[in-house]
Design goal:
Radius of gyration: 21 Å
Number of helices: 16
Organism: Herbiconiux ginsengi
Structural class: mainly alpha
Helix content: over 70%
CATH topology: Farnesyl Diphosphate Synthase
Strand content: under 5%
InterPro entries: Isoprenoid_synthase_dom_sf (IPR008949), Polyprenyl_synt (IPR000092), Polyprenyl_synt_CS (IPR033749)
Keywords: Magnesium, Metal-binding, Transferase
Distance between the termini: 25 Å
CATH class: Mainly Alpha
Cofactor: Mg(2+)
Protein name: Geranylgeranyl diphosphate synthase, type I
Strand order of the largest sheet: 1-2
CATH superfamily: Farnesyl Diphosphate Synthase
Number of domains: 1
């Protein structure tokens, strides 16, 4: 099965699952309809990268490395549940992330907390729209987490053995723990950077990348899919050595897009990460190359939610002039080469190897 067909199956499963929850929400109270609509809108977008890595992690550990061993009907049904569950988990993380970052948009639409805030305003309810919006979005994010676990639990029940079931659940649990703590580390860096050792800023930024994004975006889905198939430790180690550097490259590309991306393509305003004050590798490299006066000005502007277009362009140009952008591009290229080298040595079939190599290039050369 090729990736486009998988994406279509996952989309259909997500729509089917959300439709099945509509009646539950309405039965409790008609006022819960926004939970159904906002969930559907949020999950209607996205590239399903995590679903694709999960599926090809499963295929990569086919018995005797048989690259033509596609899942049977029951196995495919469980795999699609697992992939859909990962996409719901991702959606939950996005809802919470947008609250933390005070983001206004997501995938070209208002962020969920802004949509609840608008609902509060339209209905002329009491209290502040901001607190209602954030509180409601936190609950929707929590609900998506619960729904994600429903799908994942249903999937692992189809595991071929108890050992495989436990291994898959453990891989999911590790992912959830790591990404939650990585989110906190990201939040911490935005607030604590001025009180930490400047010599450690790059190391700390890289740590955020690993735990907030790299593992959760690539390594974990590969491990989860492979675990459901009963992967051996050498197979899991091989996929991990491929997935981690690729996940880092994926997030480095995301950081570049967060500063320079076209709003029409990314669905978020250009320079949004600058307004949010993200302490990325790109920012760390830029600051390290500035003299003290230029660094003070850079620090004063970074994280100002009211930055205008001229100030955004000035910060962007500073990042280019210092060579930080070029250095990040070099880092992306190096990590992709490392990942592809590991993939070439991995004990997997040719079909899986080719699909994973294609995915690696797609997620690191994208413009959205």
């Amino acid at each position: 099965m090729e990736s486009p067909r998988l994406v279509n199956l996952v989309d259909a499963r997500i729509n089917e699952f959300l439709a099945s929850r509509d009646s539950i929400l309405v039965r409790i109270a008609p006022e819960l309809r926004p939970f159904a609509q906002f969930s559907r809108d949020l999950l209607s977008g996205g590239k399903r990268f995590r679903a694709q890595f999960c599926y090809w992690g499963w295929r990569a550990v086919s018995p005797a490395n048989n690259s033509t061993a596609v899942p049977g009907e029951a196995e495919l049904d469980a795999l699609v549940d697992l992939c859909a569950g990962l996409e719901l988990f991702h959606a939950a993380a996005l809802v919470h992330d947008d609250i933390i970052d005070n983001s206004d948009t997501r995938r070209g639409m208002p962020a969920v907390h802004r949509r609840f805030e608008a609902l509060h305003r339209e209905e002329n309810w009491r209290g502040t729209g901001n607190s209602f919006g954030e509180g409601s979005a936190i609950l929707l994010g929590d609900l998506l987490l619960a729904w994600s676990d429903e799908l994942i639990s249903r999937a692992v029940l189809a595991a071929p053995s108890l050992q495989t079931l436990i291994a898959t659940r453990e891989a999911v649990d590790v992912m959830r723990t790591e990404v939650t703590l990585g989110q906190y580390l990201d939040l911490l860096e935005e607030r604590a950077w001025a009180t930490t050792d400047p010599a450690q800023s790059l190391t700390r930024a890289e740590r955020v990348i690993v735990y907030k994004s790299a593992k959760y975006s690539v390594e974990a889905p590969l491990q989860i899919g492979a675990s459901l198939r009963g992967a051996t430790l050498p197979q899991l180690d091989s996929l991990r050595r491929f997935g981690l550097p690729l996940g880092i490259a994926f997030q480095l590309r995301d950081d570049v897009l967060g500063v320079f991306g076209d709003a029409a393509r990314t669905g978020k305003p250009s320079g949004d990460d600058l307004r949010e004050g993200k302490r990325t590798v790109l920012v760390s490299l830029t600051r390290a190359k500035l003299d003290s006066s230029a660094r003070r000005l850079f620090d004063e502007l970074l994280g100002d939610p009211d930055l205008d277009e001229a100030q955004i362009r000035m910060l962007q140009q500073t990042m280019r002039d210092t060579g930080a952008v070029a250095e990040v591009e070099t880092m992306i290229g190096e990590r992709v080469r490392t990942a592809l080298g590991e993939l070439e040595r991995a004990p997997i079939g040719d079909t899986s190897r080719a699909e994973l190599a294609s995915l690696a290039r797609t997620i690191t050369q994208r413009e959205t």
